[in-house]
Amino acid sequence: MTTKDEELQNQIERAGSSSEGVDAYAYKKVFDVLKQEPDFHLPINFADKVVQKIEAKKELSNDYIWFGLGIFMFAIATIVAIVLTDFKVSFGALKFIAGYPGLFIFGIAFILFIQWLDKKLVRPKASF
Amino acid sequence: MTDDQALVSRVAGGDMQAFRLLIKQHERLVSHMVGRLIDNAEDREELCQDVFLKVHEKLSEFNFQSRLSTWIATIAYRHAVNHLRKKKIKVSDIPDEKSFTAHFVAEDNPEERLADENMDELVMKFISLLPVQYKAVLTLYHLDGMSYPEIGEATGMPEGTVKNYLFRARALVKENVKKYLGKEEWL
Q1: Size of interface A-B (CB pairs under 8 A)
Q2: What is the pLDDT of residues A53-84, one digit of tens each?
Q3: Which of 4-33 (B) contact A at CB < 8 A?
Q4: A30 with A47, same domain?
Q5: Do B52 and A39 touch (CB under 8 A)?
Q6: Please, how many CA atoms are within 13 Å of residue B51, restricted to the half-sphere of its CB?
Q7: Which pTM does this prediction carry?
Q8: Do B34 and A43 touch (CB under 8 A)?
Q9: How far is residue B38's CA from residue B43's CA, in Å, rounded to a whole number?
């Protein structure tokens, strides 16, 4: 790879393959292939797919805004309710449950069982 | 106001039809870069989508210091390089000229290879074995018709480096092709 190569490259680029010899012929092959389009082509609806993604992203960010606003309003409403009703934190209900540990364990086991049934039987049918 | 400026201002104003047009005008440029630099066919389309999502996100920051196509080529090149880094494919170092030439133009069995592939496919294969930076420069120059300064801007390389890589890349592939030229006539 010398200045001879450099000259050959320039010649072939300017005037195609006017030079002779194996180097010139090899360069001609290389230059021809370099101009060929790669095998990879994007689908016809590529632009639509990108636009759909952008629009879905916009919708998602709108959803986050509404979700944040909802949380904020809930917090405000909770504070207002606590102030207006003079609410005090009490563990009375939890004390009641402490007296029935079997019922508490059954409740948790039942919820887990329902979730498992949902996962095994209902969701596979819903997804197609 | 140029066509690019008018198009960019329409996209910035939320006109998605204008963005569709922008994609149509530049999808070949992006697919050339991604198609040449990324071997995995499954990743290519997704990567092209990511490039245009980034273009849409950053278009308001585009200040027309360069052509729009050069700016999009920059994003495509960076995305492709980042993708290769994530896949743990080394892209940072250009190997030492002598050792790389010896490795690249190593002897194998030309007759056997030519029986399986035609010469164009072989040349394409040699191009695919080049370092990423060489492939990027070759693609922007030969397929997209960019000038040395534009390629420098798109890849972040000095103009002298662009010229050097272009020359070395073509010379390396030529050295490999030479080994097969005589054998091609036998088959």
Answers
A1: 100
A2: 999 988 888 889 999 999 999 999 999 998 88
A3: 16, 19-20, 23-24, 27, 31-32
A4: no
A5: no
A6: 33
A7: 0.73
A8: no
A9: 8
